Amino acid sequence: MINLSDANLPESVAIILDGNGRYAAKNKITKYLGHKAGCDNLENILEETVRLGIKYLTVYAFSTENWKRSDDEINGLFDLFNLYLNRIKEKAIKNKVKIKFIGDLKKFEKKIIDSCKDLEITTQNFDKCIFSIAFNYGSRDEIVRAVNKIKSENFKTAITEDTFSKYLDTKDIKDPDLLIRTSGEIRLSNFLLWQLAYSELYFTEIFWPEFTIEEYHKALYEYTKRNRRFGGR
């Protein structure tokens, strides 16, 4: 077992939750049950994140490209979202976790939008961990929306990186120190392209539902061995 008690852990972690469908195929179960196993695992990882004292956790739950999936899979995902949002509310209150949603929620049904808003309001004063869930999120879409917001305000001065960052969905979230992607894919898939500029990247073959606490510790331990220079020597 890896001992992280004295480790220099990341303050902000982002995860691309990949491999639920392939986990389902491997275990000969429905995609719905594969996604459900992924949701169950996310609860475990969130609680461990809080226990370790990591301040920010940002996860890629549903991308702007996921609308291309079959209607059956999307409807199953929405059923799970409604179930999961109620469960995560209990976890958030118990662990004093602030919930934030990034992405364009307008395309979701009203029930999901209302649940998301309720979660944000209920947990807005918690600060033990900031848990951000990317729903209908795509980084290019986020950047385009930020540009349009800036245009609408008729800026008369030069736009700096700091100014631009304040118009992103993640304006109140620290850029990730570490990105984890499961299931063996080695790409960012339109996730946090601006924010990941200097993040450490960790890829694993393990499907998300099988990404245990021990595997999480391995990723965090690997981070502690990295030499982060941010362009310096």
Can you describe what's shown?
The protein is built from 7 helices and 6 strands. The chain is of the alpha/beta class and 233 residues long. The chain has one domain (12-138, 175-224): Undecaprenyl pyrophosphate synthetase (3-Layer(aba) Sandwich). α1 packs across α2, α2 runs parallel beside α3 (71-95) and α3 packs parallel to α4 (110-122). The relative contact order is 0.20.
Q: CATH superfamily assignment? A: Decaprenyl diphosphate synthase-like
Give the CATH class: Alpha Beta
Task: Please outline the major beta sheet.
Answer: 6 strands, parallel
Mean pLDDT across residues: 93
Q: Given the helix and strand composition, which structural class is it? A: alpha/beta
What low-confidence regions span 5 or more consecutive residues with pLDDT below 50?
Answer: none
Q: Percentage of helical residues? A: 40-55%
Q: State the domain count.
A: 1
